[in-house]
Every structure is written in C-alpha cells, then in structure tokens.
Amino acid sequence: MDDDTTAQGLDSQDPTYTHFAHRESFLDLLGRFLQLDVAVTPTVKQTQAETVLLESLGAILDHYLPLPGLLDPSLDEIVTPLMAVVADSTDRLAAGEQLDESRLARVGRLVNWVVKVRGWKAVVPYFPSAIRHLAVLVDLLLPTLADTVSRDQVHPYHHFISAQDTWELRSVLLLWLALLLTVPFSLSALSSASPPLLDVPTFTTLFAAQPVPLAQRVTALALPILSRPGKEGAYASLVLARLYSREDAVTGLPGFWAWAGAELAAGEREAEANFTAALLNMLALLPAMIDPRHLGMVVEFMDTTLFPHLRGSRTAAGSGLIRKLAIKAKGRYWLARLGKGLLEVDDLPEGLEEHLDDLMNGLGDKDTIVRYSSAKYLARISALLPPGLSSQIALATIALFSGTEDEPVIMTSFGTVLDPGGSSAAGTMGFAGGDVTRGEARWHGVCLAIAEMARRGLLDAEAVGEAVGWVLKALTFDLRRASHSIGSNVRDAAAYVLWSLSRACPPATLAPFAESIATALVCVAVFDREVGVRRAASAAFQEGVGRLGLYPEGIDVLTKTDFYSVSVRRVAFTAAVPAVAVHATYRRAMRSHLHHITLRHWDSAMRTLSARALRALLDLGPEDTDDAIGREMAQLASLDAACVHGALVALTKVCGMLRPDDERRGQIFAALNDVRPAALVTHAAAEVIQAACELIAASLSPNVAVAAGTQAVLDRYTETACRRREGEVHEALAAAYGRVSELRNASGDVARLIGDLSSIRAAQKQAAALCLGHVRYALCAASLPRAVDALLAQLAAGTKADIGTRRYVIRSLADIACREDLPVASTGRIFDALVNGLDDYSTDQRGDVGSWVRVVAVRAIARVTVHVSAQARLTAAPAPATPVAAGARAIDQPAFERAVGGMARLAAEKLEVVRAAVGATWADMRDASVVWEWQGSDALAGSQDDLGAWYASVVSLLATRYRSAVVAGLTSSIGSQVASTSSAALSALTSYLVSHPALVGPVSADLVALLRSQINANRTFLPVLATATRLVEAGLLGAPDAGAAVALAVRGVKSVKSVDRIAASMRLVVAATKVELSAVDALPLFLAHRFPRIRTMTAEALYLVLAEADDDVAPALEEVLLETAWTDDVGDAPDRVVALLRA
Question: Other C-beta atoms within 10 Å of 1059: how many?
Fold first, then answer.
C-alpha cells in the first residue's frame, strides 16, 4: 500500500473501532522500515522517503488513540522487532562501531510513538530482558563529564545519543533501563568497579549509605535528567523509583532525599518546575513498588521537605501539573497504607482527615487535571474505608455543592444556579490554585467526585437522594460571563454522574427519582447549546434505559434522542423535540425547560430555536397555549433584555397558531406596551426591536389594526427601529409596515416614510427606503405615485444618497414594479433606474461598496424583466417564439438591451459575488427571449467553480451586440491583482480571439475607445492598459490600434503622479515596441523620467522583451541597458537606446 494512501485512508476504515483493521498495512510498512540498515548513512532522497514512511506508521498508530487496546494482540509483532534493532544497535555502539544517528533516532521515535499511543505499562513487557543489556545501557546513559550533577550538562550521554533530536531514543532507553532494574538478582553481582564521576559533596550526600557501585552509577545517570521536560524527566523518575524500590538499593533513598532537599533549597531555577514534577512522579510511583516498611521515608520527605517548599513557591501556584502530581503522590501513599493492611480503620487514621480536606479543596482547583485527580483519589481512598466512613465522605463531598456558610449558592425559583457560591480559600493542598472567579470549578470537581464514587458503589440510598437533587441542578448550570458563558463542563460532568448512577445503583434506589432524571436528561439532550453536553445526556439516558428500565417510554424516546439525532442543534430542536413530545410527561418537562431556561438563554440563536420548539410543543398540546402565552407575556416587563427577546420570539411563533379573529392576538399586541424603555437601548436592543417588529407583524389582525392604542404601539417601535442601523431590524420593520398596510389605509405611514427619506440620518433613510417597497398600496393607491417618485429621486444624479439607501431603493422599486399595478411609463422609469444601478462603482474605506448595489440591481432587473414579460405575454398572447409588439410591454427593446449589456459586463468582471449574481439571474431571464430579441441568451452556461469554463462562456458574447460591454468587463478581470481571475479571463479571451480572428479588430477598437473614454479614471484606465499590454504580448493587437493605445497611454505621463499608472503605461509602450515604431519614440519619456524607479523598471522591462524576441540582444544596446546607472543622471542614454532600436 502506498504510504500517502495509508495515511489518507484511515478514516474510511473501521469507523467503529472493533479491531486493529490496519494490521496488514502497518506490518507491511513496518517490514520495509526494519529493512533499513542503521549502519548506512542515507542520501537526502532516502531520508525524505524514510521520514514519509515513519509518518505513515505514526498516522496509523494515532488513528487508534481513542481505543489503543485494539493494538494489544499485535504489540508483540510491532515492539519486539523494533526493540531487537535497538538492542543490537546499543551492543554495536558499546563495541565502538559507527552507526547512522538519524536512522537509529527514527527507530527510537517509532517505539516512542507506540508507547505514546498504548502507554508504557502495556509496551514494556515486550522489551528485551536479558541481563547483559543493563551494563550497556548504563554505560551509554551515564554522564561522561566530571561535573556537578546539579548543573545542566550539554552532553550528558554517549555522544551518539546526545543530540537534541534524539530525545525519543533516549526516552526509550530509560524506559528499558527501568525494566531491567526489576531483575531478581542482587545488583552487587552485576556491579562494575568504576564509581560515577561526581563531585565530592554530591557523592558524599547521595551515597552516605555506600550502596553498590551499579546503584551509584544508575543514580548518577538519572540525576541530570530529572530537570528535563517531557518524557525524559518522567522516565528518569521511573528509573529511580525502580532502583530504590529494590531491597539492595533502598538504603540509598535517604541520601537521595537529602540531595533533592538541598537542590530545592538552592533557590528558584529555570528548570525547577521540571525537577519538582519528576520528584512528585517518583513519589507517586514508589508507594506501589517499595516495601511497606519503607513508606515512612516517602511520606517524611513529602511532608517535611517537598510540600513546605512548594507552599512558599511560585512553581506550584502557577503549574496545574505540579498540583496534580502532588495530589497523585499523596493519594497513592494513602492507597498503599490502606490497601496493604497497615492500618486499623475503624476510625480515620492520623493525617488522613487532613488529606481528605486537601482532596476536597482540590475539587475547586482552577485546572481540570487537578480536579479530576482529586476526585479520583477521593473515591479510591473512600473505597478502602469502612462503609460508615465512606458514606460520611460522600455526604461531605455532596455538601460542597452548597458553597460556604458565608457565601452559599443562590438559586432561582426554578432551580437554576445564579451564583455557585464560595469555595475554600486554602487552595489545593495549600499550594493555591483555587478558583478565584466564583465559576464552575467547584461544581465540576464535585460532580466528578460523585461520579467516581458512584462507579465504585460508594453511595448509599441517602447519598443518592442528596446527590440527585444537586446533579439535576448541575445539568442546567450556565453562568454568563461577559460575551460568553461558563458551565458546559459542569453539565457534562453532571451527565457523567447520572450515567455512573445508572451503572452502579440498583433500580430500587433510583426509582423515586426516575421520572425527574429521565425528563431532565431528555431536556438537556435536545436543548443544550453544546453538542458534547447533548451527546453526554443522551448517553446517560441510554444507560438508564438499558440498566434500570424505569424511564417512562424509555425505548421509544431513546430512538428519537440517540447520538446522531442530537448531534446537530437545529435538528435536535426541530425534529427530536416534536418526536419526543408525543409523550405528555416529556412534553410538560420540555415546555417548562423552554420557559425557564432556553428562552432565557444568553445566546439569541438559542432563544430563536427555542421559540420554534415551543410552537412544536403547543401544536401537540394546544391546551397549554394560554399558559404559555401568560408566562411569556409576564417576561416582557423583565429587566433582562435576553428574557424580553425570548418572550417576543416565543409569542411571535405562538401567534402563528391563532385564528385572525382570536382575541388573544389583541392581548399579545397590547402587551408590547409592557416592554421597559431600557430594553430598547441596551447592547441587545437591536434583537429586542427586531423581535418586537416581527411580533407586530404576526399579531396584527383586522380588529387589532383599528383598535384604540394600536397606533401608539406602532409609533413606539417604528420610530425606534428607524433609528437603528442593523439590516435585520430594517427587514423586520418593513415586514411590519407591509402587514399594517394590508389591514388599513397606510397613507399617513407612507407620507412619514417619504419624509424620512430627507432625514440626515443614514439609518433612517435606509429604513424608509426599504419600508416603502414593502407597503401594500391597494388601500392607499393615491400614495403610490408619490412613493415611486420619492424613491426614484434618491437615485438621481444630484442626490447624495448613501450606499445602503441606494441598495434598498433598488430593492423597493423592484418590489413595487412586480407587485403593484403601475402605468407603463412608471415601470419604464423604474427599469431605467435599475439599469443605471449596474454602473454603481462607488468606493469608500470599506472598498467597492458599489458592488452591493450592482448585485441588488442585477437581481431586481431579472425580477422585473420576468414579471413584465409574463404580463406582456398574457396581454398580447403572441405566437410561440415571436417577439411581442413594443406597445404591449412596459420595457422597450433598447432598454432591455442596455440591461443585458450591463449584465454581460458584470458577468466578466473580477468580483465573484457579482459574477455569481449574474449567473443565477441570467438563466431566470432566458424565457424573456420570446418577448424581446436577445442575442446570446444561451451564454453563461459555465460554473463559478471553474473560472476557465465561466470565462469561456462569457467571451462567446463577443460575437453579439454586447461586445463592447463584455470587453469592458474583461478588462476589469484581466487587470485584477488576483492571479487566478486574471489568468482565467486572459486565457479565455486570447483563445477566443485566436479562433475568431474577425473579432480581433473590433475588440482592439473597443479597447482603444475605453482608453479614450476612461483616460481620467485610473480605476478603469489601468486595467484597460494591462489588457492592451497582454494582447500586444500575445500578438493580438495590431499596429494601428497599438499605436493609438500607446498615444493615449503616454498622454500627460510627465505630469502624472501615480507610479502605478506610469508603470502600466510603460509596460504597454515597451511591449508595443515589437509591433509599433511610435512606441520606440515614446521610450525616452520613461527612460528619462523624473522618477528613478521608473527609469530602472523601463530598462529592465525593455531588456526582457528584447531578450524574449531575440536570444542575442545587440551588444551595444545590451551595454546601454545593463551598464547605465539608471538611478543617476542618465545623460543621452535614452536617445542612444532609441537610435539603436531604430538601427
């Protein structure tokens, strides 16, 4: 199998992780890898191939990180041959042979990769265990410099494995050494006579008990590595733990503790965190390895030396890893004491209560790894205590939910958390690290601890009852912090608790809480914001259904809220909710959850989806509609803008259920008066105002529209919405005006909107322009001409309407033309205004904002054209494929051709969004060809995904009457700085002209005409110059047209200040020297230009052009161009260049 294919095809195989599906391919690649000779130095190409091979093997291993145990049956086939290579290589190194460092390092990296994925405990049994390797490893790893081990050493190992990039090989060797130290033979029988190279004070401190020489050498090689980060430091601590757990080496442990204490007391060091982590890792390993009689030495060092040092150090406070390892080390010490039967535990042993307090404080640590470690050891220690004591610990842990006496937790009436309460100020084991933000840390840690206890069956009925009440509250834990929230990890952990309870508790214990748990889990599974929490709740529900059999309609609900059903938030809200809501038990709980939590959520998208879900629930239970309306109307007076917005969107959806004559519509509309003024000016005011306008449109009915007080409500929200700049608010406001105008005469509203078009506020003008297009003029026909005139006036040349207003005006004119019964003349005026919008190239600090108008104009033209063509055909009833008489349509042929020409130009321009708009609407307009004569209606068949195909379809319009417009658009694309667009447009144009030589002259003439008309507009003049230059280079611009283009390009070039324009003109002149003699005469304008940069660029460009045309440039001309210092005074060099070119 190809290496790349192996790496890329991983996800398509064994998606369920049932077995080691890549075994065959992995072993094949491994066989190729093992064939490499570590004694041969590879070439660069071989090194690259070997690196790819290694990465392919690593990619397969990484694929099994979720379930590494699947590799176990194949570990012997993987690890054994690799370690055979390592063992053979170490023997050869010890014998003085020279090997290739890079190849052996790659072997070490692959072994370390296996260790990373599977874990060292599962891999080490496959390492060679021959005793002879022990001395070889010690010799390779032992420091060779007579230096103090407390100092960093640059080369502490054999020179072959001392490079920085061989750390993975060194890690494997240390892991192997730790295995070999478990041999059952006395180290004195394996010792060499040579002592390690250490300074006298260090030697005296470490080896006061005079351990055997081999133990001394192992200690000496491990000490410098303790301060190294990563696996090297961790495996060095493992080596020392293995060494000092031996009966023949444990006498050296007090000396090591003395040395370590002296190193800590030496002060803050750069590597102190690494050194401390290694010591703690060693302390965590020793209790399980060492004889119980020596545990006192371990705890004494922790309590009297290490922990006091950390409590006064910045290292522990800033490192979650240090605090986590401290929890682990002390926890394993107590596990060893309790598990090995050293204590009578009718009462808590001395010191254990203090450690349990430390663990409970650790549940509130700011780092998750510390919280989880605290939870795990709290549960493991409790499992070794009598049931009475473990029950007390469980209840004390659950009590941490309630905060402290001075700062208790604060709840809402529904049971959601407002303030999680305070935590202990002591921090984790007195090392600080406590959660200082009053956030979710303590709640998360307590949930983890309860889950771990539940998994081990440590919760009795009383504890389960206490825990369930708090955990159900934790399922909805969501605290707002500025622009985001915290608490997703608490909700996830709460689901984990319920999953653990379902696994460990008998059904009878959970039966009283079954319905509460089931409904709470379902609500979280379908309504939570985070996909991970939804899936966790679904998994907990599934576990409860399968193990307890207590949940109402459990099997049916489970099939509707499985892993995949809740993965997509929108699907969970709109599909899973109605499916589950057929069961009244869950429908009641979900509706309550929506009213109290989700419709009050800080995320507006969640509130909007919640409104849709509420509507689905009420469709299934219409008897709850009055209650739902009452609850949400009560929220309109809330001080929280999120609550107000949730109520508004919910009532909007509910109104869709009510009949037009339902009196509840009037009650809902009148309730809009309850919204506080402050809600309309907060940071979320735009959402509130938009939702209010949408509610107005949804709740209005014929009776409500004419009721007293309606106009006051309308005025309040329409005036506020008009002053907002958000487009969504304007859309909602326009829809509200549209609904009002359907129900009553809106002449007054139209007059006010027309007046707003003269406002100095851009937002107010934009809102008015959009609203005038949404108004239905059937009940106020006299206002229609005034509205059309006012809108057209905004597009007049003398009116300085902003870009947003112009965009909305074009939309509104199209809406009016397609909806209202207008005179033919008015439709024609509107169409002309829309066509003029195709020429809007306004720019500001945001860029080409005119493109917004052009896109809207393209769509508007298509709508109006299709509408007018349909009306014309209905009126004139022409024969098929016969153009309708001009008198039967509102748009004449010249106007239609101007529109098509403008769209053809935009189809060829550089902006993708504009091209896409033309492509989408061109097809909609094709049916209009039976009304107007339309050349090239079948063009633009290409896809925007393929620029080459798109521009190939555009250039076919060069053969139509729209050629000039297409050429203008193509110059924009060819002159674009986007290389893909420029090259695709140029390639399509040149290919088409080569195959249609008759069009070369007309296209050239169009380019010259564009240059002449745009000579004062650099925005369009420069792209045309670039296009002309490219066509000259391609031999598609003849001498006459090239001469005319050159004459226009050099006009006023001495006084032009734009370097870009001068450079573009220069390129055209230089390119034209091959076909037009007048271009040669124009060269001195650039070779002698006042800007040195232009002189230099011209000389370089001219030389390149001449070199491409003729490989051998005339020596004299070459000398002038290359040897002249063009940045200095050029003298007569420009004239000499012209003379030599003419010669």
Answer: 12
Q: Does the pTM exceed 0.85?
A: no
Amino acid at 723: R
Which pLDDT score, from 0 to 100, does residue 1131 have?
Answer: 87
CB neighbours of 425 closer than 8 A, spacing ≥ 6?
434
- Model confidence band, residue 970 (pLDDT cutoffs 50, 70, 90): very high
| Cα of 629 vs its chain's centroid, Å | 38
The token duo for 164 is 């920085």
The one-letter code for the residue type at 325 is L
CA 551 to each of CA 451, 464, 509: distance values in angstroms, whole numbers, following the listed order: 20, 17, 14
Determine contact, residues 365/428, Cβ cutoff 8 Å.
yes
Place of tokens 């054209």: 865
HEC string of 733-760?
A: HHHHHHHHHHHCCCHHHHHHHHHHCCCC
What tens digit of pLDDT does each residue of 430-487 get? 776 665 556 688 999 999 999 999 999 999 999 999 999 999 999 999 988 766 788 8
Which pLDDT score, from 0 to 100, does residue 1008 have? 92
Strand ranges for 12-136 from DSSP E: none
**Tokens 């339902």, located at residue:** 662
**Quick one: which of 658, 645, 742 has its CA closest to 694?**
645
| Of 909, 889, 1034, 1032, the residue nearest 969 (C-alpha) | 909
Q: Residue 585 pLDDT > 90, yes or no?
A: yes
Q: Does an H or E element contain 484, and which? A: strand 484-486
How far is the C-alpha of 1051 from the C-alpha of 1074, rounded, in Å? 20
- CA dist 826 and 811 (Å) reads 16
- Strands 479-481, 484-486: pairing kind: antiparallel
886 secondary structure, DSSP code:
G
* pLDDT band of 882, cuts 50, 70, 90: very low
Q: What is the pLDDT of residue 81?
A: 95
Cα–Cα dist 783/781, whole Å? 5
Residue recorded with tokens 């390690």 = 196
Q: Give me the pLDDT at residue 341, please.
A: 59
Bridge partners for 844 per DSSP:
847
Check pLDDT > 50 for residue 791: yes
Query: Per residue in 796-815, is it b (16+ CB within 10 Å) or e — as a string?
Result: eeeeebbbbbbbbbbbbbbb
**Cα distances (angstroms) measured from residue 631 to each of 584, 648, 673:** 19, 11, 16
Confidence at 214, pLDDT banded by 50, 70, 90: confident
Please give the Cα distance from 120 to 123 (Å, whole number).
5
Q: How far is CA 937 from the centre of its chain?
A: 43
Phi/psi for 266 (5° steps) reads -65, -15
Tokens standing for 436? 């200082």
Quick check: 316 and 326 in contact, CB under 8 A? yes
Whether 853 and 842 have beta carbons less than 8 Å apart is answered as yes
Give pLDDT tens digits for 1065-1102. Answer: 999 988 888 777 778 888 888 888 889 999 999 999 88
Q: Hey, what amino acid is at 380?
A: R
Query: How many angstroms separate the Cα of 13 from the Cα of each of 5, 74, 484?
Result: 12, 18, 38
User: Which of 514-518's residues contact partners 24+ apart within 8 Å by CB, and which partners?
Assistant: 514/544, 514/548, 514/550, 514/551, 514/552, 515/551, 515/552, 515/585, 516/468, 516/472, 517/468, 517/472, 517/544, 517/551, 518/544, 518/550, 518/551, 518/552, 518/554, 518/557, 518/586
Dihedral sign for Cα 469, 470, 472, 476, please. positive
Element (H, E) at 417: strand 417-419
pLDDT tens, position by position, 659-702: 998 999 999 999 999 999 999 998 889 999 999 999 999 999 99
